[in-house]
Amino acid sequence: MRATEVRPTGVERTFGENELIVSKTDPRGVITYANDVFLRVSALPEAQTVGSPHNLIRHPDMPRAVFKLLWDTLEQRREIFAYVLNLAADGAHYWVFAHVTPSFDRAGRLLGYHSNRRRPAQSSVTAIREVYRRLLEEERRQSRTPDAVAAGIAALQRMLDERGVTYDELVWQITDGSGR
Amino acid sequence: MKPKPESVDMAALDQAVRLVTEVCERALNGDLEARVPLISGSERATRIRTAINGLLDHVDAFVREAGAASAAASRDGSTGGS
Q: Which domain holds residue A117?
């Protein structure tokens, strides 16, 4: 909720090559843990972060389709790698390459989700920006949220079909530098 | 008599040692979800908390990434891919 009130300033923030941004959520997506790098880069105090929904750092320029894909994948108890543009509480933005995985207890019950993010290469950011720009363009033609999600998903699928790749393959092409 | 700020610090450190020990024991038993909760009152307690949690974050991330890599390798192997 709060993220919608923060206006992006256009200031880009980055973090160390060997740093990890980590957060954990419960099964509903409420943050239960955020590491020091998360708090620093997101310009958030810990007390305000833990207990908040994860969309606290949602950036308005992130396609809805990507979050839909992310949650659909996690609900199937599968992991996902995704490029995500996040919004810090002070209006700065930062790109991450996220690996989001469900956490299970020994009995196989879902405990929640874990996301660790690394700093993406600049060339990967350039490539994914173009992909997301096309998704956003389609989503913003729609006035209703469900229609926007559907339009974004359809646009993503067309893009994957054009390239003859799966979503995972596209992500790894971009990561390995062959996706441009 | 001067106040004794050291005694306040000791209580926070004691708490930190207890919390860190609990988290390390849970991790040792395979529970990498555990993290040391917020400890106030001592800069040294805060530092050890950050250090232990950072260590666990890296181990946790490594285990998850290694899991993803071996899953990808076995998928590629089964389809005869590169």
A: 8-12+14-174
Set of chain A residues whose Cβ sits within 8 Å of the Cβ of B39? none
Determine the Cα–Cα distance for residues B36 and B18; give it in Å rounded to an integer: 10
**Distance of alpha carbon A54 from alpha carbon A31, whole angstroms:** 6
Contacts B65 to A, Cβ<8 Å: 99, 116
Contact A39, A19 (CB under 8 A): no
pLDDT in tens, A133-161: 999 999 999 999 999 999 999 999 999 99
CA angle A7, A113, B22 (to 5 degrees): 110
Interhelix angle A64-75/A145-163, nearest 10 degrees: 80
CATH code assigned at A41: 3.30.450.20
pLDDT tens digits along B3-38: 555 555 788 888 889 999 999 999 999 899 999 998
